[in-house]
Fold these 2 entries.
Entry 1:
Amino acid sequence: MTMSVATERVFNFSAGPAILPEAVLREAQEAIWNIDGSGIGIMEHSHRGKVFDKVIDEAVADCRELAGISDDYAVLFLQGGASHQFFMIPANYLPEGATADYLNTGKWSQGAIKEAKRYGKVHLSASSEDANFNFIPSGAEVKPSVSPAYTHFTSNNTIFGTQFRTEPAKGGDSFLICDASSDIFSRSIDVSKYGLIYAGAQKNLGPSGTTLVIIRKDLLERTARDLPTMLTYKTHAENDSRYNTPPTFGIYLMGRVFKWIRREGGLAAIAAHNEAKAKIIYDAIDASEFWNGTARADSRSLMNICFRAPSEDLESKFIKEAAAAGMDGLKGHRSAGGMRASVYNAFPKAGCEALAEFMREFERKNG
Amino acid sequence: MTMSVATERVFNFSAGPAILPEAVLREAQEAIWNIDGSGIGIMEHSHRGKVFDKVIDEAVADCRELAGISDDYAVLFLQGGASHQFFMIPANYLPEGATADYLNTGKWSQGAIKEAKRYGKVHLSASSEDANFNFIPSGAEVKPSVSPAYTHFTSNNTIFGTQFRTEPAKGGDSFLICDASSDIFSRSIDVSKYGLIYAGAQKNLGPSGTTLVIIRKDLLERTARDLPTMLTYKTHAENDSRYNTPPTFGIYLMGRVFKWIRREGGLAAIAAHNEAKAKIIYDAIDASEFWNGTARADSRSLMNICFRAPSEDLESKFIKEAAAAGMDGLKGHRSAGGMRASVYNAFPKAGCEALAEFMREFERKNG
């Protein structure tokens, strides 16, 4: 049997759930009908059967290979997205009365901070809130507490288009926790600097509903309080993410994305590609008096490029005309306004070139 | 472009993740590349965009239509499976010092009971544990407490192959909570008898990673303790399951399954089909001295049919030969042994006939 599939795909600038590699989508189309000649689709296989054993084992191995993750760390696939980690982290690692350091660089940092306060004290070691989160604090702007339980930061801020260049300073010998939901595996990462890295899949890794958690194994043993079985990391680590039925299709797809990144040359090659892609759009902004980037130049994100036109009317017009020209998802977040071009790993360079050209043309007509 | 897809599918008796309707899988193959002519696949659409608005709105509407769910109830799509509900329910509805009634009818009931004990007292209003969970308690066997916070039961027990015929007795004016993971929408259900119904998707509704929760709206307002934002049902109800990024593909697929059930004639028609399917296999067991059903006749599940052969050697041989004949997933759960044929909504009658015939043939050769 053959299947007809519409091939017309547009340039999808969505901030998340976001574009996936087309090669992976093609693989998934086959696998949901019949994976590995098993006569059963990937969603229909037992999570304890041999076919899924291979899927999850390879996903873990490819993840380790990609980011150079040592055996000192466990690689877990959980559910609930970053929002679920916002409370699971302090529930496990912030004892009552103790202090955790948080860098407040946007809406997702704020979400994490709100939940942490239920469990202990929060010290804001830095904040860019007064500048509408348009920069990443660094140097003397970061003031760690003396001995925090841990230090938490959001490596990339989707809404305001800012991104940490490197890890922030931390107090004492506290371990670092990173919400890397929106830039995970978009560049090289030295996992050994972290206690815990978490990322909802739906930007760079796969479909929403699966969360990648990379956790240092010694942390599995020290939790701050007695918690439900499902809320301790140890439960999931001891059972290789299969204490309960995991999101099998999400793990399958994430595994295929890991293999795709490896085929693309790994994290260093992806990083170079992402830099080149973002530069095309930032150059269009910087060469113009019409367009204005909202993030401070030294803090610009390579994943989410936020910019404004001279008026909101022109912004609405631009977004509408861009959509008609096959460029979807350019409307900025409601709390930031303007435009946002999200150009995650799977977003093609041709889409960045098309947008830059469209911006120049729009400026000529409306500037 | 055309895509070649292997069409050879086997009879998949997996207990879960389990077989899905082939018509739905065909729809999903197209939708993950380009849904509704949008030029973007279902997994790549923003959860706040118009395409996904339609997906989730229709899923809720079709769910309400299927089960006759009134506006007194909210229909939610959560994450974490039934295991996540095991603690989320008592965290919300079992005040410290108060008692909840649980019917202990198998491994999943025990999981729910274990988590409830963290929050308050548990009264076992009935248990079939002494009989290795081979029956469903009823009549005088059910002894509710006077005024429990709620009464919890597991409507179908996948491991031991038993199923409630109707709702159990409950104490006082407590509300009923049901883990319906493995028989949801396999028959008609009077939702108005319940306070909360939950079901992991991976048996009758879709891929693992999405949990359907049907909750009476007055319960949204009364929670027993202050909880993290993500752990209160109200958070999810107020945001139409989009407080955070939901598992968009899982919701899409569940919605397509709801439409498929409607096309099949709705819950009454599905129930008649399921009765006829299970009867084919139970008749094969009852007509034989060789095969033995493990569940008491009055408690037999229409979803999971558990049976034994005269020896474990013969069981291994049967499972192996059945797999070679295109019948996969017949091995019983490790805690029950023997064979288990899971024949959820999407499992075809032809597969039941094939199994019954294969059982008769195996008996002739080995009996």
Entry 2:
Amino acid sequence: MKKNILIIPGDGIGQEVTTWGKKVLEKISEKYGHDFAFDEAIMGHVAIEATGNPLPDETLEKARKSDAILFGAIGHAKYDNDPSAKVRPEQGLLKIRKELGLYANLRPILLFDELLNASSLKPEILKGTDILFFRELTGDVYFGEKHRSNDRNFASDLMNYNRYEIERITIKAFEAAQRRSKRLCSVDKANVLETSRLWREVVQEIAQQYPDVETEHMFIDNAAMQLVKNPKKFDVVLTANLFGDILTDEASQIAGSMGMLASASIGDGTGFFEPIHGSAHDIAGQNKANPLASILSVALMLEISFGLKEEAAFVTKAVADTLKAGFRTLDIADNTTSPELILGTKEMGAKVLE
Amino acid sequence: MKKNILIIPGDGIGQEVTTWGKKVLEKISEKYGHDFAFDEAIMGHVAIEATGNPLPDETLEKARKSDAILFGAIGHAKYDNDPSAKVRPEQGLLKIRKELGLYANLRPILLFDELLNASSLKPEILKGTDILFFRELTGDVYFGEKHRSNDRNFASDLMNYNRYEIERITIKAFEAAQRRSKRLCSVDKANVLETSRLWREVVQEIAQQYPDVETEHMFIDNAAMQLVKNPKKFDVVLTANLFGDILTDEASQIAGSMGMLASASIGDGTGFFEPIHGSAHDIAGQNKANPLASILSVALMLEISFGLKEEAAFVTKAVADTLKAGFRTLDIADNTTSPELILGTKEMGAKVLE
Ligand SMILES: CC(C)[C@H](C(=O)O)[C@@H](O)C(=O)O
Ligand SMILES: CC(C)[C@H](C(=O)O)[C@@H](O)C(=O)O
């Protein structure tokens, strides 16, 4: 199979982790006789530094032409502490999601048995958890009109949804639920928000076309609580952009660490694969970052964009085997891990490659 | 001390739990020689059934005239599954918050040592946690303009904040931080939202007037994660209405159960005290609800609205002693609780009264 893959390392630890994602892709290409060609592009803070633009046209053009994108991370503390900055790294990520029509962000919460103890949650609460989030990614208050009054004392963001935006991701989520355990939970705040009431109406309508799927509606506050209390009760979780941002980060603690979670953004165009962790500037360049989320993003790419199930399973198994052998990065080590099993980014990447 | 207290039981388990809050107030009044007079009013689903209005004028008038309000819970599944309902119980709660100017919702996450094992989080993660949330309560996307297009296919809610709305709660939160461990974490989504950027600007400005308080800013997605990962790192948490709704429900798992958490809403007028749990219609009328959150709301009322510190401490101690004696309601029992120590609402209420 011949594929053009674009690597966008982005900011912070992005470079370190995508290096290992790429090496895994090369290995797979070799082992299974595929022909993967790679290109690279910039986005985020590094792109602002180089061009003034968080998403240069050249990057967008390369993205459009590629068959899949492996992305690292975005963001820089410099902008976080300057609320009046006009240009921000995150704008690059939001714009590429919108431009490529990446309306569905899939975030599987994959729990490796070996990491049961790395979580702050009790193992008996976690055991057996397997959640697939569908987060809407190109609508909601993220993309609604923003306003700041001339005297700077009033600010607003428009939270909004169109029916078709809800329909298309809802259908994808129900299809996934049919392939999985046939349970879907839609999360909203319909007791307060008009957007959520439209959301719930649409989900209720579409649910009728999937009578074999058990559908539940839950308020976001309750969902944030239930996710800690009893994560096993969830299977497919469908939600809006903002609520999905919050819930999936929270859910990362189920998997032991943000450093373990991969995500796939799909929709109209090229698929976009990224860890859910951020740029983590505090550990960037120190060989401390966990490359497993990037490697697991590669597994999602192989399966979802290229339909290469066997290859994807092979990558996931390589990660599982590495964990089984006892190796850990710092973020997933616990006080029972012996120091010689705690690896840096490179060493962990190399172990998985083996 | 002479005080007029209004009881608004509301919906579902509200009646059962406020009954015990009221009994505790009567007991305190007797023991300490105060003169507490009680009145009752309706709100929510029960008020819709009786008058068509979730917040009848008579209730609002009584609320304005009273010295403090003890509220139960609101909501009914009937409306949740009907996204097109025009009148909803929650409108009553939102309206009374707005009308009474209750802009600051204080939610202390009080962890009783006896309940360390009732949580889904590991005891060593929890031990020592003591968080005080300041949730803004009369602004944000809760109260912004709502819109639905004529063809019903587009919906929006305006997320918005004015500077003064952020200032007044921020000052209250910093004052509390000074009295506590001098750490404040403000939670927003300033990398995406204009409202959050205004929020962060205002908090940064006001922070300069409290140089003794260590101030941190955190994105909501990260906060939702850190709260599970390492709750001890938080002390005073300041946030907007929607984010506060989500984070405090999530944090309830730290305290073992929603059934343990009380809240105080304060601002321009009469103080309003309520458990953070909802109406829980599934267990209503079955003598299963945990009355402790209502009783702890009474402790907050005594301290915050009436300045009765000793009385408040006495109530909190009565709750702690009851837990120490081993008694539990269903929601806070675990598999080590012997069955004869598991009590119903009435029995638990009576134990605390003793
Ligand atoms: C960086 C930020 C804009 C982004 C988001 O909020 O979508 C991130 O948190 C994510 O979840 O991908
Ligand atoms: C009932 C609902 C409107 C309310 C809210 O969202 O504010 C509740 O969840 C709360 O937290 O008090």
